[in-house]
Structure formats: C-alpha cells, structure tokens
Design goal:
The complex is a heterotrimer.
Chain A: H1 2-28, H2 30-38, H3 42-58, E1 69-75, H4 80-93, E2 100-106, H5 109-118, E3 126-130, H6 134-139, H7 148-157, H8 160-165, E4 167-168, E5 171-172, E6 175-182, E7 184-188, H9 198-208, E8 211-213, H10 219-226, E9 233-237, E10 243-248, H11 253-267, E11 271-272, E12 283-288, H12 293-300, E13 304-307, E14 311-313, E15 319-321, E16 325-333, H13 339-352, H14 355-365, H15 372-375, H16 378-382, H17 384-393, E17 397-398, H18 404-418, H19 428-444
Parallel strand pairs in A: 1-2, 1-3, 8-11, 8-12, 16-17
Antiparallel strand pairs in A: 3-16, 4-5, 6-16, 7-12, 7-13, 9-10, 14-15
Helix pairs in contact in A: 11-19, 18-19
Chain B: H1 2-34, H2 59-65, H3 71-102, H4 108-118, H5 127-136, H6 144-154, H7 161-169, H8 172-180, H9 185-196, H10 198-210, H11 217-223, H12 232-241, H13 249-269, H14 271-284
Chain C: H1 8-29, H2 32-37, H3 43-47, H4 51-75, E1 88-90, E2 93-95, H5 100-136, H6 144-150, H7 156-182, H8 204-209, H9 218-251, H10 258-270, H11 273-283, H12 289-296, H13 310-339, H14 342-350, H15 355-383, H16 386-392, H17 412-421, H18 426-450, H19 452-455
Classes of the chains: A alpha/beta, B mainly alpha, C mainly alpha.
C-alpha cells in the first residue's frame, strides 16, 4: 500500500515537471497559436497584415522604435574581434537600434551551415558561410531573402560572380562578403624555379625532397583538373533551392584526360593531399587560397611567392591550364518572426558587407573584397596573393550552386584515387566507368 | 637452470622496454611539440617532420593563458562538468545498486532486463531528440553545461553492474542483523553499506570524472554556436579538424598536455581502485 | 500442453480480467467516497485521513489535466499527420506553421503521460478498496507518519529508484521511442522542421536499406556491417590475448619494477583519448612524423598511405587500438592471474608440464571462464566503439562504391553519426540505429548462451 503512495509522489513530480516543460514550449510558439486563434480565415488576416507591413516598409525611415532583442552573429574565429569592433561602430552610428544587444560567436564557415540546419531557431541571426552551402540553407529555411531595399545596392556594388553566388533561382539570398574563395599557387622561390607547369613544380619539389600539396579529394579543388580540360559541371536551381537540372560532361574524353592527370599526380612522390598550409609538412608549393596568405608568409619567409595555377601536359599530349572554382563568402540573415528585428539584422548585414568594412577586413585579416570599389583600392591591388588570384580568375569558373551531395561524391572520387582504387595501370574502361558513375550520380541529384 | 632463467628474464626485460617505448613515444612527441615556438621568426609553428624542437619555448602555453582564446573557460567548464557528473552519477549508481542488490520488489527483474535492452541502442541516435528536449528547458547553447550534466546523470542509473556486483559480495547477514536491531533500510544503506564500499565508490566516481574530458560528440551537439559553453574536447578538436585554425597544432599539443597532466595524476593516484573496479566488473560481466 | 500447466496467454487474460473486475466491483461495493475517487483522485483517501496519499494523488490529477490542456491538446490531435499547416511568409515576416518535430516528440510524451495516468487511476481505485476493507475489518489505517517513514525502510527501493527511473525514462526511453518513430517518417534534409513538415511513410526507409543498386543503401549497409563485425572481432580478441600476454610477462617471477611497467602502460587509459588519438592520427598521416622519418632515413621511397588506403587504414586502426586496449586487459588479467591457485601450477610442474602446456590447460581455460561475460561486453562495446574510429579516420577514406558519405573504416555508429550531424538524414540514421540495436542484441543473445560460465555455473568452483 505504501508502495503506491510513493508511486503517487513520483508521478506527481514527473507530471509537474512535464507540465513545466510544456509551458516553456508553449511560449516559444505563442506566435503560431495567436495566428491560429485569431480566426478561421488566416489568409485574409495575412493579407491585411501584409498591407500594413507594406506600409511599414514604405515608411522605413519613419520607424522610431525598433524594439529590443538579441542578435547573434557567427563568423570565423579569425574575424571575431574585427566583427565585434565593427558592430560597435555600427551601433554607435545608429542609436535607433540601441535596444538590441549583439553577440559575436566564433563558428567556422564550414560548421555554420550544418548548425543552422540542425536548429534554425537556435542558430545565429546573421552568419557567414561559404557559398557552396547556400542552396542547402535555402531549402532548410535558414536563409531570408535580402531586404528589397538592399537588393539593387548589393547587385551593383559587388562583382558579378559574387552576386551570382548569392542568388538562388532568381532571388538574392545573401550579402557577398569576400570574393577570394578561389585558389592559386603559393610556392617557395628557393625550391620551385618555374611555377608555370605542374610537371616542373613536381620535379623541383622531388629534387629538393619537399612536397607539393593539393587537396584532390575535395570537390572544390578537383575541378581544377576537370574544368581545365573543358568538362562541364553546373546545376540549375529554382527559387526554393531545389536542383532542377544538371549539365555534367565528366564521362568524356576530356574527363578521362583530367582524371588520368589526377591519378598521375597522386602517384608522384612529391605529392601530398591537403590544402591547409598550417597543417602541411615540408611543403614547397601548395594550392591554397588567400585566407592562408599569413601562414604562407610564416612558412616561406623571404622565399614567399604566389602564382596562378600551372599548366599540365595531358595524356593526349596537349597542354591544359588548370582551372577551378572562383568562390565567395557570404553573409546570411535568418528568417525572423519579428519584422523589426529583421530590419535591424538586414541593416547590420548590409553594413558588415559594405565597401568600408570589406576594405577594413582586408587590412585586418587579408580577405579579398567582393565590393568593386574596394577591389580597386591600391592596397588590394598591390597584394601579391590577391593578384595571383586575380590572374587565376581568368581561367576559373564562378562557382554556382551545387547540391551538398556533390561535395561528398567528389570526396569519394578523390579518395578512390588516393586509396589506389584507380591507378595509372587501370584500364581506360575502368576509369571511364568511374567517371560515368560519377556523372550519373551527379545528374541524379537534380530532379 | 639459473642461466636459462636469467636469459628468459633478460628477454622479458627487453620486450618490456620496447613496449614501454612504444607506449610512451606518442606522449613524448606530444610534449616536445608543445614546446615548439609559435613565432615564425624563431621557429615555424605549423606541422614539421621532426620531433625535437630547435628552440624550446613556452609560447604555446603563454598563448593558452593569455586570454586570446577561451581556453581557461573551457577548462573551467570541463572541471565543473567532471566534478558534478562524478558526484551525481556516483549517488545515482549507489542508489540503484543498493535497491537492486538488497531489495526484492515487483518488477525488479523486468527493470534490469529492460535497462539491459535499452543499453543496446546506440546513444547518438537520440542526440537530436535530446537536443530539442533540453532546448525546452533552455539547457542548450548558453545553458549547455547544466544540460550536459543533466543528460549524463539522468541515465547513469543504467550503469549499475559493477557496483551492484560489489554490493552482492557484502554478506546479507550483516543487513539482517542490523534490521533485527531495528535499523531501517535507509540507515543500513547510509551507515553500513556506504562506508564499506569505499573502493567501488572511488572507482565509480573516477570513471565518471574522466568521461567529460573526452566528451566530444554530445557536448558539441548541445553547445554549438556558443564558444563559452564548450568543453576542452569540443573546443580543441576544432584546432585540428578545421582549417580556420592554421598553425594551431602546437597549441593543441600544449593544451592537450595541460589537460592530460591533472587527469593522469589523479588516475595514477587512484589506480588501485580502478583496477579493483574493472577486475570486479570483468568477472561479473 | 499438459493439463496442470496454465497457458501463459490465458494467465495474462485473467490478469486483465481481474483488473476490470476490480474496477467494477470496487465501484459497486464501494461507498460514496470511493465512488467520487473515480473522478477526483485521492478524494477517498483524503476523507479517510490519509491526507498524504490523497493530496499526492490530487496533485497528480491537477498536473495531468494541466499538461493535457497546455501541451497534450495542442500536439496529440496532430500526431497522426505530424502537422498540416505549412510555414508562411507574411510580408517579410516568417510565420512558422506546424512543427512536425515537436508534434512527434510531445505527441509521444502525451501518450506516455496518458498511459501513466490510467495506471495511476487504477492504483487509486485499488487503494480505496484496500482502505475500505481495512476499515471494514475494524482495523485502523496506518498513520501518515508511518506511511512517510516507510519510504526509508520497507519501501526504500521506491525512494532510491524514483529519480533514476524517471531519468532513464525521460532521457533514454522517450528519445529512443522517438527515434524509432522517426524511422517510419521522411524526416531528412528536405523535410526539416520547423520550416518544412515531415510525415509518416511506413516502411519506405527499411525498403531503402535493403535496396541494392546505385541509390539504395543495401550494398553500403552490408559492407559497413561486415567491417563493423570484423573490427569488433579483431579489436576484442587481439587485445585480449596480447593483454593477457603482457600481464603474464609483467607477472613473471623475478621481474622487477612490476608497478613501473604497469604504470607506463596505463598512461593510455589516463590521457583523454581526444588528445592522444588526434596526435597519433597526425603521426601516421601521409605527411606525418612516421612517414617523414622513414623517408628521411631512406627506408621507404614513397609515403605509406596509413589512412588513405582502405585496407591499410583498417589495419592501422586495429593496431592503434591495441595501444589503447592492451592496458585495460593487462590490468584485469593481472588481478585474475593472481587468483589462480598456485598449487594447480605446482602439480602440473610435477607432472612435467612446460610453460606452454600450463598456459593451455590451466591459465587460458580459467581466464576464458571468468572473463567470458567481459569478452561479450567488450565485443558489443567495440561494435559501437565510436571514439577510436572517429578520432583516427572519421570513417575515411570514402569510396565511389559506397553511398551517403560512408567510408571504408566507418562502423555503423560512426556512419550513423555522420548521417545525423553532417547530412541531417535522420530517417536513415534512425533505421541504421535500429539495425545496430538488432546486431548487438543478436550477438549478445547468441554468445551469452554459449558462455561456459552461463552453461556451467559450477565449472571452476
């Protein structure tokens, strides 16, 4: 009998606990409830609200009270301090937003998208990410469209590639932040005498007992080979971030030439897989981007040098200029259920991606701007790494939208080469079959 | 006969020395790396292909304490996690073990079997669910530390095997005698059984204390996007895995040393109890 | 079926019948206090002076009603569809529709709470009946103080187990049931709450698991499963025998500094794995220390692809796991070896047995006998050994022949983890999770019944 009493006590505690938890939840979705309770005809209500909101939007300048709230920003660790300083400037210049407190957290561009998708509501309000994630973010509802009043400015002030990268379907979803997400060659002048051919670089490295680094198991670097020989790999998207069509021509003679070169490179003694200069051992040349220019200078010291990517001699005897992606870093704003907060976020994001801040960011951490005016500044033009990138730009393809699965698939292709599954002794048929599989899978991502 | 034995012993010593070298070599490398300079003018701080640094320096340690990163906060978080998880888990395990070992009640075997079956589900499966469950209570991101303690402690009752096995070896006659003298169950538990269980309590607490130092998976899932809620494992694996942190490898090594030292010392001091625990656990399953 | 035995099904049927009989009979024979207790829990107890029980029961009912009104009412009706209202944009504002995730989670919780409440309601009825019967016999009901004190004596188990059981329920049972449900939905990156809805899809995901072909999981699943089993086998037995060997070396008579040797080995247990394994991972990298020195000394011409060649990566992992695993086994074996009665060896020696024979006929059988269950837990533990694999290779290298980012060294659990965290493919992760459970359960059951210590309890005593 007494057993039961205890059972009763237990259950009381439990049920009360659950009730408490319920109420917290309730509060979170109060907005939805309110909408539900408001009436049978939500569509009508929505229309009315829309009209009102339009009026509000028209009269943006007249909004006096933006309310209060918290804005969370995610950027890479390297620019946390910089971003904090710029946010402070922004708040000082815009006292009307004083009700908002802004926190900046170091979340790398690689992790940000994944975390945003896991829990949109718990994620940051403004976050930086690499453009390859954009379609995925739009599909998951983690990206808000750029505020209509900012669209024209963003489009006209940034380079066309950056604007393209921030556009899904025909909608602009993000503020371009940098235009330096491309790669080129860093090398050690004392080791590599002539950086113009891949074969020459490898020979120099091997003679010196040093390594040449390139991350061939990354879908991003891999295209340096395939695009060089003239293969295509592009996708078309609709406004919701769904992939509608794929144009892939990897399974072709051109693809085979590129694939064979990848295999040949992998079997070269001086080759190492990797693209992070800080993680590279005994490195004399590396295919890497501007974000590592500081680390490259540390490593090579006085022998620091940059160049466009080399050419390589294909199995068919022709020379090909290595190509690749030109990519961009973007700043996104998360969908909000508070319109005023959204306005503040948009204003802040626009500021953080403005000419002034892009230039300041370049001076601080060396990230190459996407803003056209900033690109024309003397300091940017004089930068060795950025000029190498600019030179390489002529051979690259602006990176459009790719499904997340593509990157995994490309890693599989690269890993298959690295693991020796495909080697120089493999027959053309085997290699062609691999490329055909790759191509078919790529196409299957588009529906 | 004696020479043969001596040769045998000599071979044994050689093998043991070789084993020791293999076992300690990575730690030796780790310590050496941690003393490599971070200043590119003195010595390059990225990856290199040699072990002994050309210049010994404390740059990496200085960096960790300088406040440029939140290392001290992560360290503090991990200590808080370890202490509280260790404390509460031990209490939970003791309670469950005593009840299952000493008392006979309806549903006892069902409970034991049910928990055994539950234990066969992989824990990661439930991460996303636990994340949103904790989020309802505000125990993610900023509240991740109490959240992690709650999750680690809540289900710890399922790990009662070793402790129950130990309680089973304490003769029941002692309980019976005390009960005849009028002592209640609670009294027996608190004043008789617990004082007799020092080894197993230390073992349980020690194992619980060590786990949070390596908890990467769940901690990163609960605390994402909030730097000051990270534990050392979450924060520092980024230095190795993410390209955002170029040249942080020597700092990782230095941090690793700072983490390993106290944990290792504690472990060595309590090694005796640990051995007793695992041996007992192994025999009883 | 013999006449004397009762059919278990019939027995269960009786029990159910009894429950309904009790409910009916109590209502018919009970007084008005009892009858009101059918609606207001604890009413009868309270009026009979058992206010402790009465108030507790009433609080439960209040809590239950509050929960249903605040949470249950909102989520439970949508449980069958997991929500229908989609997220809308109102001007630039986002108005979230139904959140399938929360509907599933709190729907399940509501179902559990209702079941729990029904049980409580029944307990309340039984309690009323029992009290009435005691009073009818003219005895007195136990005082409230006595009831309370019993929680520390005869009912001490309830006090001890209350929090652990609730904890396991909320943080283990509920999430597991939740994820089992997810295996029957289309919850993945294209159906991600709160922006998108997901819904029930029946056995579609399980069909996908056994679909062979380019997009199906079948081939990859069985390859990963195969490596998981191979890994668990080697990781368990190699560590076991080598650990035993090392323990015997250290325990050998005439060897000095026993404690020192042990302490050196134990360092790998003490140092957090994320430090030691990440360092070792870098050490074995293509451009790591080991390859660097071997190249420098001219022992090899080209770096050994420890992590990039699938076969070599698997071997390297098993070897490094020896480094992690031997110390545990060594510690355990050391203790156990001392337990073997010395006279067994003595008499064997007199019979002229040599070291190997003694090992084969005394040490090994004894060790296998006592550590049988340990081997089993080691094996199932290794099936799910996340840390070693993930910290060393993260499952890589990937291959064109495997789908969904699976790599050649992925175990089912690491694959499951990557699916959850990197790809948010929860539907398939849930299916894989259920498969991990199935494999673990089958292995445990089969091996458990084969263990000598289970078959023959008296064997070595």
């Amino acid at each position: 009998m007494k057993k039961k009493v205890l059972a009763v006590l237990l259950s009381a505690a439990m049920v009360l606990g659950l009730a408490a938890c319920g109420s917290a939840e309730q509060a979170a979705s109060a907005a939805v409830d309110a909408a539900e309770d408001a009436g049978v005809d939500t569509a009508q209500v929505a229309e009315v609200v829309e009209d009102v909101a339009d009026a509000v939007a028209d009269a943006t300048e007249e909004v006096e009270d933006f309310g209060t709230g918290e804005i969370k920003i995610w950027v890479a660790d390297a620019v946390v301090d910089f971003t904090n300083a710029k946010v402070a400037d922004f708040m000082a210049a815009n006292p009307q937003y004083a009700g908002y407190t802004v926190t900046v957290e170091p979340v790398g561009e690689g992790d940000a998208a994944g975390n945003m998708i896991t829990d949109v509501q718990g994620g940051a309000d403004i976050y930086a990410f690499a453009q390859d994630q954009i379609a995925r973010l739009v599909t998951a509802g983690a990206l808000e469209e750029v505020a209509p009043e900012n669209v024209d400015a963003v489009k006209s002030q940034n380079d066309a590639g950056a604007v393209g990268a921030a556009t899904v379907g025909s909608t602009l979803y993000a503020y371009p932040l940098t235009s330096d997400n491309g790669y080129f060659l860093y090398y050690d002048k004392s080791v590599v005498s002539d950086p113009s051919t891949l074969e020459g670089i490898l020979a120099d490295c091997e003679a010196a007992g040093k390594s040449f680094y390139m991350e061939i198991n990354s879908g991003w670097y891999q295209t340096a080979f395939f695009f060089a020989t003239g293969c295509d790999l592009t996708y078309e998207t609709d406004d919701q971030g769904n992939f509608t069509k794929a144009n892939v021509t990897y399974a072709s003679d051109n693809g085979l030439v590129a694939f064979k070169k990848m295999i040949e490179l992998n079997e070269s003694k001086a080759f190492q897989n990797g693209s992070a200069i800080g993680e590279a051992t005994n490195c004399a040349a590396i295919v890497d981007g501007t974000w590592d220019s500081g680390a490259a200078q540390d490593l090579f010291g006085d022998n620091y040098a940059c160049a466009k990517l080399p050419t390589f001699k294909g199995a068919d005897g022709k020379d090909y200029q290595m190509s690749g992606f030109g990519g961009f870093k973007l700043l996104g704003v998360k969908p909000q259920d508070d319109e005023l907060k959204l306005m503040v976020c948009d204003a802040l994001a626009a500021y953080l991606s403005s000419e002034e801040v892009q230039l300041a960011r370049y001076n601080e951490v060396g990230w190459g701007p996407s803003n056209l005016n900033a690109q024309q500044s003397d300091a940017v033009k004089a930068d060795v790494a950025l000029s190498a990138l600019a030179e390489q730009l002529a051979f690259t393809i602006p990176q459009g939208q790719y499904p997340g699965d593509y990157w995994a698939l490309a890693t599989s292709l690269g890993d298959s080469v690295r693991s020796g599954e495909y080697k120089s002794s493999s027959s053309d048929d085997d290699l062609m079959k691999a490329l055909q599989d790759f191509q078919d899978t790529c196409i299957s991502y588009a529906q | 006969m004696k020479t043969k034995k001596n040769i045998g012993n000599a071979i044994t010593y050689i093998i043991l020395v070789i084993i020791s070298i293999i076992w300690l070599f990575p730690f030796f490398g780790l310590i050496m790396q941690s003393f490599r300079s971070y200043d590119p003018l003195v010595e390059y701080g990225g990856m290199v292909d040699y072990i002994i640094p050309k210049h010994f320096s404390l740059d990496n340690y200085r960096f960790l304490f300088s406040g440029e990163t939140n290392f001290l906060i992560w360290y503090k978080n991990t200590i808080i996690l370890a202490v509280f998880i260790s404390l509460f888990q031990t209490i939970m395990v003791l309670c469950v073990s005593y009840a299952l070992s000493r008392m006979r009640f309806k549903g006892r075997t069902f409970l034991m079997r049910f928990w055994l079956i539950l234990g066969m589900f992989p824990g990661f499966l439930t991460m996303i669910c636990l994340y949103f469950l904790l989020k309802q209570f505000g125990l993610t991101q900023a509240g991740a530390i109490p959240g992690l303690i709650l999750v680690s402690v809540a289900s710890s009752g399922m790990g009662y095997y070793v402790c129950k096995g130990f309680f089973d070896t304490i003769p029941k006659a002692l309980d019976e005698a005390a009960r005849i003298d009028g002592a209640s169950r609670a009294r027996i538990f608190l004043t008789m059984i617990i004082p007799m269980s020092k080894p197993i309590i230390i073992y349980t607490a020690l194992v619980a204390f060590m786990a949070p130092w390596c908890d990467y998976v769940f901690a990163s899932y609960i605390a994402f996007g909030h730097d000051t809620s990270y534990n050392v494992a979450v924060a520092m694996t980024r230095w190795v895995w993410t390209n955002d942190y170029q040249g942080y490898f020597t700092r990782f090594c230095a941090g690793g040393i700072l983490i390993a030292i106290p944990v290792t010392i504690l472990f060595m001091c309590l090694q005796r109890y640990y051995v007793e625990g695992v041996t007992g656990g192994a025999v009883k399953g | 079926m013999g006449k004397g035995k009762t059919d278990p099904a019939a027995k269960r049927g009786n029990a159910v019948g009894n429950v309904f009989r009790t409910i009916g009979v109590t209502f018919k024979e009970g007084d008005w206090k009892t009858r009101i207790s059918y609606i207001i829990l604890g009413f009868g107890e309270l009026l009979r002076g058992q206010w402790l029980k009465g108030i507790a029961l009433m609080l439960c009912e209040v809590g239950f009603i509050a929960y249903i009104l605040k949470v249950g009412k909102k989520y439970l009706p949508k449980f069958t569809t997991l929500g229908t209202e989609v997220t809308k944009k109102v001007s630039r504002k986002t108005v979230y529709g139904d959140n399938s995730f929360l509907i599933l989670l709190f729907g399940l919780l509501s179902i559990f709470v209702i079941i729990f409440f029904i049980v409580l309601w029944y307990v309340n009825i039984e309690e009323n009946r029992a009290e009435e019967e005691i009073l009818k016999e003219g005895k007195k009901l136990p005082s409230n103080k006595k009831v309370l004190l019993s929680l520390f004596d005869s009912n001490f188990d309830k006090t001890l187990l209350a929090i652990p059981v609730i904890g396991v329920f909320v943080f283990t049972v509920l999430p597991i049931v939740f994820m089992i449900c997810v295996a029957f939905t289309n919850y993945d990156k294209n159906h991600q709450a709160p922006t998108n809805l997901f819904t029930w899809v029946g056995f579609e995901n399980f069909k996908n698991l056994v679909t062979f072909g380019s997009s199906g999981f079948g081939t990859t699943f069985f390859k990963v499963l195969g490596w998981t089993l191979v890994w668990a086998f080697f990781a368990t037995f190699i560590d076991y025998f080598l650990g035993l060997a090392v323990a015997m070396l250290i325990n050998k008579k005439g060897i000095k500094f026993k404690k020192l040797w042990r302490t050196i080995l134990v360092v790998t247990i003490a140092v957090p794995q994320f430090v030691s394994l990440l360092y070792v991972m870098k050490m074995f990298a293509n451009d790591g220390l080991i390859n660097g020195y071997l190249l420098k000394w001219g022992w090899i011409k080209q770096a050994i692809p420890f992590w990039t060649n699938p076969m070599l990566a698997r071997i390297t992992i098993i070897v490094i796991n020896i480094w992690i695993g031997i110390p545990y086994m060594m510690l355990i074996a050391t203790g156990l070896l001392m337990n073997i009665p010395e006279d067994l060896y003595e008499s064997a020696r007199i019979d002229g047995a040599n070291g190997l024979q003694m090992f084969k006929s005394i040490t090994l059988p004894y060790m296998l006998f006592v550590t049988g269950p340990f081997l089993l837990t080691q094996f199932t533990g290794n099936l799910n050994n996340f840390n070693v694999i993930y910290l060393l290779t993260q499952g890589q290298p990937q291959s064109m022949k495997l789908v969904e980012k699976a790599g050649s060294t992925d175990l089912l659990v690491t694959w499951l983890y990557k699916m959850t965290v990197n790809n948010t493919n929860y539907r398939m992760a849930a299916v894989i999770g259920i498969m991990v459970f199935a494999v673990t359960a089958v292995v445990s059951l089969v091996v458990y019944n084969m263990l000598p210590s289970v078959r023959d309890e008296e064997g070595f005593q």
